Amino acid sequence: MPLNLLHVIQRYPPAWGGSEAYFARLSRWLVERGHSVEVWTTDANDLSAFWNSKASRLPAGESFDGQVSIRRFPIDYWPLRRYLLKGLSLLPMPALKGWVLPVNPISFGMRKEAKITQKKFDAVHASAFPYLFPCLCGLKLARRLGCPFILTPFVHIGPWNDPNNAIRRAYLAKPMVRLLRESDLIFAQTPSEVQAIQQMGVPAEKIRLQGLGVDTTEVTGGNRLQARSRWGAMEDQLVIGHLANLSREKGTLDLLEALRIALEKNPSLVPQVRLVLAGPSMLPNLEKDLKRQPVLTSVVSIVGPLSHVEKRDFFAGIDLFCMPSISDSFGLVYLEAMANGKRCLGYKAGGAGDVLQGTGGEAVEANLGVLSDALFGILTLQESYQQISEEAIERCQREFLWQPKLELVEHEIIELLRSRIRS
Question: What CA–CA distance (Å, rounded) separates 24 from 12?
Fold first, then answer.
C-alpha cells in the first residue's frame, strides 16, 4: 500500500538535532520502500534562529534530500517578538496558546500553505515538542484534508526523582497536552514517555511504544590510537567522552563539577584520566571557567563539533561515555557508544533512564553528589572500563536495530488508514 505522507518538523538536516536526524532517516527509508514523502520545515539551521534573526539559517524554498521533497518556509521576525508572544500566551484562549509559545519557530508562510494547499496526503506526521507551531500547521492541514494526524512528540520528562520538575511541566503544558489528545496516533520512545503521556489523559490505544535504533556502520570502526593521540591521551589513561550540545541541560556542567569533586577527593587519580567534550557549545564562558579550576585544566579537552569520521574515532577512543542529561527523550548517543562496546553513565532522567538501566549502562539519581561518587568508583576500577563490553554490543544488535523500529511506524500508519476505510 504506497503512502503519500507529509512530515512536518521544526528543522531538517543539515540542521543538527536528534528529532531532525530521526525524521530524515524515516523519510529516506519510507521513500526507499516505495512511499512518497514531502517534508515541511523552517529555514532555521541553528536552534536560536527560531527567535534570533541573526542566527544561522538555510535557504528557504524547495529542495530534495535524495527522493524526499523538502520545503523550507522562512521564519518571521518582528520587534519585541518575545514580549508580544509572552503577552499573547497569557490570554485565556486555549486554541491560541500553542501557536504563540515564545520558543516557537513562527512561519506565517507555513500556516498559510496549510490553509490553501491543493495537495492531498494520506497522513500528516509531525514533530517535535516544545516547538508547536509547525505541529499545529500539520494538524490544521490534516483536519482540512480529513486525513490522520500522527505525532512523534519526543516528550522530555526530566529527572525521575522530581515528578514536578520544570522540564516535565514545560513539555506537558496545556498546549502540548491538547495536541496529544487531538492526535490520531502517537509514537513514544520509552516506557517512561508512554506513562507520562497516559497520565495526561491520552487513551492508551492511541500510543505506540517505538524506540529508536542505531546503525552500527555509521558509528563504529574508528581509529582509537589516532583519536587518543589527537587528544593527548595516553593509552593507559581512562578517557571519558561527552558528546552533546555542551550545555547545562545536557549535563556538561554537572559532569565537570562531579569530576572535579572526584579528583579532589584523590588527586593521585588526575594523571589517570582525560575528559573529552565534543559537540557545539552553548556555554560561551566554558574555557574561561575551566581555567579557574586547576584540577580540570590538564584533564579536559574541548574538541568542538565532529565530522562523521571524527565521530567514529571519538567512540573508538573513549573508554566510558558520560552524559548526565536531564533533557533527553531517548538518548540515541548512548546507543552509539554501546554499539562500540563502551559503557555509559548518566542520570535517571527522561528516556535515558530507561535506556541506561539495561546492559552496558548505569543510571544514577539526578544528583551531583551521586554522580561524583559513581565517577570516583569508576576511576578506581578503570581497568574494567577500558575493556570492550561485548554484552553492550549484543544488546544493541538485539534491541536497537533501525529496521524493526522503522517498520513499526510504516505498519501502524497503514493499519490506521485501513481501520478508517473499514469504519
Answer: 7
Q: How many CA atoms lie within 13 A of 244 on its CB side?
A: 26
Q: Are 362 and 321 in contact (CB under 8 A)?
A: no
Q: Long-range contacts for 330-333 (Cβ within 8 Å, ≥24 apart)?
A: 330/18, 330/154, 330/189, 330/190, 330/211, 330/212, 330/355, 331/355, 331/356, 332/18, 332/21, 332/22, 332/212, 332/214, 333/243, 333/244
Both 75 and 34 in a single domain?
yes
d(CA 251, CA 325): 4
**How far, in Å, CA of 261 to CA of 277, rounded?**
18
Strands (E), 175-288: 185-188, 207-209, 238-243, 273-278
Q: What is the mean pLDDT of the chain?
A: 95
Are 318 and 297 part of one and the same domain? Answer: yes
Q: Same structural domain for residues 259 and 378?
A: yes
What cell does 110 get? Answer: 507555513
- Match 520512545 to its residue by C-alpha cell: 189
Q: What is the mean pLDDT of residues 323-349?
A: 95
> Model pTM greater than 0.90?
yes
**pLDDT tens string 192-206:** 999 999 999 999 999
179 and 224 housed in the same domain:
no
- Cα–Cα distance, 364 to 352 (Å, whole number): 11
For residue 32, what are the contacts with CB-CB under 8 A and spacing of at least 6? none
The one-letter amino acid code at 348 reads K
**Domains in the chain: how many in total?**
2
The answer on 353 and 270 residing in a single domain is yes
Spatial neighbors of 366 by CB under 8 A, at least 6 apart, are 159, 160, 161, 162, 324, 326, 347, 348, 349
- 66 and 121 share a domain? yes
